[in-house]
Amino acid sequence: MPSDNPPTLTVQLHMLDDGIEPPSYAHPGDAGADLRTRIDVVLAPGERALVPTGVSMALPFGFVALIHPRSGLATKQGLTIVNSPGTVDAGYRGELSVTLLNTDLHHSVTLSRGDRIAQMVIQRVETAEFIEVAQLPDSVRGTGGFGSTGGFSPAPQAGSAPSNG
Q1: Considering the domain boundaries, does residue 148 fall inside one?
Q2: For residues 116 and 70, is the Cβ–Cβ distance under 8 A?
Q3: Closest among 64, 95, 97, 98 to 81, alpha carbons compared
Q4: 55 forms bridges with which residues in the sheet?
Q5: What is the pLDDT of residue 160?
Q6: Domain contains 40
Q7: Binning pLDDT at 50, 70 and 90, where does residue 147 land?
Q8: What is the pLDDT of residue 153?
Q9: In this model, does residue 110 exceed pLDDT 50?
Q10: Cis bond upstream, residue 85 (ω within 30)
């Protein structure tokens, strides 16, 4: 880890493979620590695979590790994570693995042992107390769900000309 980005949390790691680098931050101030594959893998177009990282850890209670895709791999090769972000709970002690998906329609993605495959962001979490009520309080949004705030153009109606405006 770069020295001008002092750690704010201690996380115990157990490396399951001596040949793989432990999670690390590429630049000062980065939120995500890079995770690497401990195996060679080729993902055909549309294929997914559970890829081991050679890392297990003990997060302190009250924290979670969220596993995100690497933006460069996503943009350049179409590689993403199926359950993004992946969630690693504080009580989990097994090997961290990442479910990778090749979204490219025409090209395979080849990963070599030691390649960076994902980013791990560690965050503080709250534990909620769920209280059942007969009715929820009103809000400005109300029950408006997916797409209720706009941000997209409606699909043109059949037979209508597209507008320029």
Answers
A1: no
A2: yes
A3: 98
A4: 15
A5: 54
A6: yes
A7: confident
A8: 66
A9: yes
A10: yes
pTM for the predicted model, two decimal places: 0.81
Amino acid at 25: Y
- Domain extent, residue 107, equals 12-124
Cβ neighbours for 64, distance < 8 A, ≥ 6 positions apart:
87, 88, 89, 90, 122, 123, 125
Q: Give the separation between CA 27 and CA 59, rounded to whole angstroms.
A: 22
Asked if residue 155 is part of any domain, the answer here is no
Greatest alpha-carbon pair distance for the chain in Å reads 64
| Average pLDDT over every residue of 26-35 | 95
At 20, the pLDDT band (50, 70, 90 cuts) reads very high
Structural domain includes residue 69? yes
Secondary element (H or E) of residue 76? helix 71-77
Q: What CATH number does residue 42 fall under?
A: 2.70.40.10
